[in-house]
Amino acid sequence: MHKTRTLEQKFQVDFHFNVIFTQAVFDIENPLLYKLLVEKKTVSKSKILIAVDSGVINSHPHLKEKIENYFEQYTNIQLQDDIIQIPGGEASKNNESHVNTILERVNHYGIDRHSYIIAVGGGAVLDTVGFAAAIAHRGVRLIRIPTTVLSQNDSGVGVKNGINSFGKKNFTGCFASPYAVINDASFLVTLDDREWRAGIAEAIKVALIKDATFFAWIEKSANALTNRDLSVMNELIYRCADLHMQHIRNSGDPFEQGSSRPLDFGHWAAHKLEQLSNFDVRHGEAVAIGIALDSTYSFLKGHLKEESLLRILDIMVKLGFKLSHHHLTGKVIQGLEEFREHLGGQLTIMLLEAIGSGFEVHTMDTSVVLEAIGYIKKYNTQKLEA
19-190 architecture in CATH? Predict the structure, then answer.
């Protein structure tokens, strides 16, 4: 007779962090960052390691000097070594040597769990540095300073970190809460038009599945957004970030143990399109195409009214998105299987039944996906010829 004994372990851990909106975070007159660094100080001197997106350095040539000057005025926080530069975009996530660079500095300078790593950059650099911070000593305090629209309203305010491995996006990664997030609006003014626009796709995404009123606001604000009105963009970022944080807080599955991932609406095709284009298509641009594809699929399956579909496609075109690409072919369908694997077994895709209301399915009709690709290619051509 076999004896069986079981010890059940169950506990809860509260996670808390603030997303703070400011301007000119590294100006000497702005004490915000300093106050964050010393509010839970348990040692006489807090050690700081900083990694910055090289693209941000190029756009802000005096940034390194400003950072160094900022920390020179405080004797109880200590900047360690030179500022680490990490290449921006997917290049940072496609090479694990950048993670190793951070780990080597953490080891060399004795950065511990009472120290801080500050990541300044776009979403890919935040993912890379965040992953290194999470696995060093099982977690060094991380402060994110996102510098793009997409990272300020979406990826930078979440709990995901990771890099690409085996040719798959975010294959290696973890869930880890940042210590704080600082959205500095002054970084947005140097973004090129593609980067400015790309982040709006994530706002459209969350509005479509959660908030019809927000979607209507985006429609109303389209001209201001395309004309780079910073105050309107800041409002978009704030509302989008708030909806993302509400979902993470209230979903009951913040670390995505299940297969339901509503915030990945449009992403199964987007991830594959990025890969097929060798990341020539930026994430936000790919998400816009993925949203168009899944919205059209929703219409063709009889879930979404065509009037609502055309509102979705029209606003994205008005904002400057291209809804087709030469890599948008049947090969994109391979992304469904990769997405299923990424979810952990069961395929779960978010579709639309109305603007502001999403629902989930566990199968996709590939013939209808191909029909949807044809629909949006025809729509895109008509808009270009108009």
Answer: 3-Layer(aba) Sandwich (3.40)
